[in-house]
Structures are given as structure tokens and as C-alpha cells.
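can u do me a favor
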């Protein structure tokens, strides 16, 4: 392991339990940007290729009968497509300070409650992408009630969800950081009607680029994120030099 890779790993909050939401990515990318700035020219930090497969997740819950049917809890249409090779034409709205796609009648969120909590996405590649962005936006909103609902309703049951629930309820969040992040691109790394791996590329308002993967499962009529046993939702956080290999997609 190179010295630059070690520096990035040590500064990455996703290597520690307790950072379960997208706001932690802000800290990771700022740290990564500092590392890049300090490196001699020609040296780079290690980053996984955007198209590589996501590592196996330790969550053990299995899809329910509704997964096989692909029936959304709010009646959104399912799709037989298994790939998404171009950016969907999306309408964007702000959730907190993050631009987030919305299409309540086709891809989701089909349900939004009085607190602003968004759920119910279509059983399709675009639905999985929208669901992944929804988790990022809710997690970075800074609203503690939304973070608790996120952990309770949008994570696959198991040890990781239990950790996330405890820490969300205790206010163990990093969302107080003033830096914002916005999505810049994506890759659907793998997709079946019951499992999906979504790679999202982000940019901070400091200009740093990075990406992270969400492992998702269709369960009880909606997409849910499979956290690791220590409550980590976003995996493989790494900085990027540019957006090569990603499908460009952004609302801001």
C-alpha cells in the first residue's frame, strides 16, 4: 500500500463505525482533497475502477415475496429492464441542500410524509438509482427525525441496521458539517429485480470529486440499503480525478 493510499484510508470516516449517512462523504472527500493537494505531482491515491463489482455485504436478510412480484407498496410500475446505459431525464428538487430526482408517478418517491420523509420507488434500474439518491439526500439533510426514519425504514434489517438505529436516535451524526455535496454521475454496477449495486459520483463545494457504492435490496415493496454490520451505508468511498467512466447526471 502506498503512503497516499494509507493517508486516505486513515482519514476516511467510513472505516469507523457510526458514520451511516451521506454527510460522512463530505468529510471523506474534503480529507481526500487535502491529500491530493499535498501529494507531489504525478502521484495519485488508489481508487477502485468505477465498473468493478461491489464487495459482498454481510447483511443476511432475504427478499420477501413482494420482491419476486416486483410490486411497489405505492403502486409504481415495475420494469423488465436490467440496465441503465444513459442518464434519465429527471426533474430535481432540493432535499436539504442536495438536489434529488423526483418522479412520483413513475420512479419515485411515491410517498412523502409531512416531515419530508420520502419512500416508495419503482422496481426498475431507474427506481433503484432514484432510491439511492434519496438515501443520500435524506442522510445529508441534517434533520434528526429524517435520519432516524431512514435507518428504521430504508435499511435492510440486521446488525448494521440495529447500529444505525441506535446512533441515529442518539444523534450520532456528522451532518452538522457546513459543506454540501451534489451528485455528478452514476453507474448501475449490477442489477436484478431483487438486488442492485449503485455507484454515485459526487462533488463537494470545495471542488473535490469522489464516489461511493450503495448495495440495495428490494424488500417489502421498496428499495432498501444493505448496511455493513457496523452500520456503514456507503462503501468504497474514494476520490476521483475526473468523472471518466461515469454516466453524467446532475441537478445542479
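np, heres the sequence
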Amino acid at each position: 500500500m502506498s503512503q497516499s493510499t494509507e493517508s486516505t484510508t486513515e482519514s476516511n470516516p467510513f472505516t469507523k463505525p457510526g458514520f451511516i449517512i451521506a454527510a460522512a462523504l463530505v468529510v471523506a472527500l474534503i480529507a481526500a482533497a487535502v491529500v491530493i493537494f499535498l501529494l507531489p505531482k504525478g502521484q495519485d491515491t488508489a481508487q477502485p475502477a468505477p465498473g468493478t463489482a461491489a464487495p459482498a455485504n454481510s447483511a443476511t436478510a432475504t427478499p420477501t415475496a413482494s420482491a419476486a412480484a416486483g410490486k411497489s407498496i405505492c403502486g409504481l410500475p415495475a420494469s423488465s429492464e436490467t440496465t441503465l446505459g444513459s442518464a434519465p431525464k429527471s426533474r430535481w428538487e432540493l432535499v436539504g441542500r442536495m438536489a434529488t430526482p423526483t418522479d412520483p408517478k413513475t420512479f419515485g418517491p411515491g410517498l412523502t410524509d409531512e416531515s419530508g420523509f420520502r419512500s416508495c420507488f419503482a422496481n426498475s434500474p431507474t427506481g433503484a438509482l432514484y432510491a439511492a439518491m434519496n438515501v443520500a439526500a435524506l442522510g445529508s439533510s441534517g434533520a434528526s427525525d429524517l435520519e432516524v426514519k431512514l435507518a428504521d425504514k430504508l435499511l435492510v434489517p440486521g446488525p448494521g441496521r440495529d447500529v444505525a438505529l441506535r446512533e441515529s436516535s442518539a444523534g450520532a451524526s456528522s451532518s452538522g458539517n457546513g459543506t454540501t455535496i451534489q451528485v455528478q454521475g452514476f453507474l448501475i454496477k449490477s442489477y436484478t429485480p431483487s438486488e442492485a449495486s449503485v455507484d454515485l459520483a459526487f462533488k463537494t463545494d470545495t471542488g473535490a470529486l469522489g464516489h461511493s457504492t450503495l448495495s440495495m435490496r428490494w424488500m417489502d415493496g421498496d428499495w432498501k440499503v444493505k448496511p455493513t454490520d457496523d452500520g456503514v451505508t456507503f462503501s468504497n468511498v474514494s476520490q476521483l480525478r475526473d468523472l471518466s467512466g461515469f454516466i453524467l447526471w446532475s441537478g445542479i
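The radius of gyration is 17 Å. hope that helps!!
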